[in-house]
Amino acid sequence: MPSAGLVVARPTEGLDRMRALAAEMPVAFGDGFRTGRELAFALREPAPRLYAVGMGASGIVADFARSLVDSETRSELTVVRGPELPHAVDSRAHVLLTSYSGNTWETVRAYDAAGRSGAARTVLASGGALVAKAEADGVPILRVPPGLPPRSAIGHLLGGMMGLLDGLFPESNDARVARAVERVRGDVGRLGSPRGPAAALAEGIGDRLPFFYAEGSFSPLARRWGTQVEENAKRLAVFDEIPELFHNAIVGWDAVTKTEAQRFVAVLLEWSGADPTVRKSLRYLERLLRARGVRTLKVPLSPEDRLEALLGGIALGDLVSLFLAQRRHVDPLPVDAIGRLKAALGTKSGVA
Length: 352
Prior knowledge:
- It is a single chain.
- By secondary structure, this protein is of the alpha/beta class.
- The chain has two domains: 13-178 and 333-345, 3-Layer(aba) Sandwich (Rossmann fold), CATH 3.40.50.10490; 190-328, Glucose-6-phosphate isomerase like protein, domain 1 (Rossmann fold), CATH 3.40.50.
- It has 13 helices and nine strands.
- β6, α8 (219-232) and β7 (238-242) form a beta-alpha-beta unit.
- The radius of gyration is 20 Å and the shape is globular.
């Protein structure tokens, strides 16, 4: 029986729609990348300081972009989650403002603050106040298709941001993106089949509280898996990054009792390109968890390319969260709790 307060999926249109959008994500990423490339003139001469502002599903787009920029270029992308910009933002900075709805109040306020600082700005949105302001100010706009749940717009937004930032990389990601899109697109059907990896992972997680772990540059993936479980399956999740958790969380795991262990599951998102010492530490964590009686699930990510690993990881995690929603008989589409908060705060209806 579903828990009290959950939205029961009768009929299953919400689940069907979210699955269809998850399947379309790789193609949306490719489309967004090409659109972003068309606007890339705005970053042809990279600013000394790059900032990306966003909240929720829009904010995690910047986290994914940062993991690629910081790992593969000589530039640095700072992610801001909130309305206040760092004091370092000035006329030498370039600020990317991402809000799917265009009405996220934190991002709208940051847009105004960036303007007052004299920073260059680029907006990524489907409409709303951000687009209206950008049009009035002559600020470049990367428009994404409207009418989607914000968390399902990740392909358009992340692809668009990577297109905007393409000039920062040693060589264009055009061929790389095409290859990753083709491979992940071809794999989605297998991943999301009733007997596929996503369904098996959801079954392995069951009703336990999931802890999603990934090494530093893949930590946005752990966050995405956690937030998708929270929004789609309407249940709590925890995410953390490696090796940071070896300086704190491991103490808690070491003290877990056999009884407590039955309530938890650790999901390890592993990329073979991680630092060897990090991988060795991960094996130690895995042994510790199993010794304490904690169910542990390993998820290998594509070993060939960081971008493909991230894109494939997003697809798999989204599908896992939808199988968990199906398991609880809840509709993944509504996020009424966020709407109630917005109403209580008197902010606009945009979520991310």
